[in-house]
């Protein structure tokens, strides 16, 4: 079966679920303040909050008393208190206190689901599947988030589509056409694909506009006249359920997925600019390196937002076109997308 016919037989990918047995990002750490925060991960409303020791917890976002959202509530010591009648729940999801419980009444024996949750590399990750597997599966590692040799920018966005449209956009480097002078790469040629049941890795030979080899080179991010096209490998990977790409040695970019529903996906795009080419960097004082990292934080956020804006117009149209005419065929020439769809199916089947 060739690439074209294979992908045409897979339109229903747009209705597939997710493999729940992975760590998904639900928010950035700094977005969780003192108040509980409600998030949605594949149609499951979840409330995350910190107790008075600062420890993070995640519970089903539903008060079992009257089914309202617990994320309207407040944290009182180690308990999450519902806004409506003040029932309080512990971190295991059990009702621990009812303010008007009569002396002859027992606490209601109601319990809501708790989720494994961790804070790591700038983000809050939730494991929505079989809790016993949460120690075996690791969240995607982003060591560059903290590493002093990397400048970090990120943006969070809501994609009005099934997650498959977003990952196909990210894996198809031929769509640089859309970004015109915003794109970092040019002339990609897909050379090979490595795939297994957990990932698809597509290797493109391409050209890059940027080369971060001198201190002033960072200015290329802002001044187009300083950019010069030169050959670089462009590697993009769907490491289910997230995406990682590198352009030469200077740039790494990741997209962390939070599929919300069949037609909505939250995601975080994170851009790392490497300073590893500056071989004297490591002898500079740590405080200075941290200062440079901090002052440069989000320097490329505007660029990321512009790229995302362009992509979202196309992805939303793809989703709407699918909803209006699910019978219409796409004509796909990029084999990486056939592999992406295969991986999505494999992962969903694993989850069942
Ligand atoms: S609905 Fe939550 S305490 Fe009543
Ligand atoms: Fe794009």
From TrEMBL:
InterPro entries: Cholesterol_7-desaturase (IPR050584), Rieske_2Fe-2S (IPR017941), Rieske_2Fe-2S_sf (IPR036922). It comes from the Bacteria. Residues 23-126 form the Rieske domain. The keyword Iron applies. Signal peptide: none annotated. PROSITE patterns: RIESKE. Keywords: 2Fe-2S, Iron, Iron-sulfur, Metal-binding. The keyword Iron-sulfur applies. This is Rieske 2Fe-2S domain-containing protein.
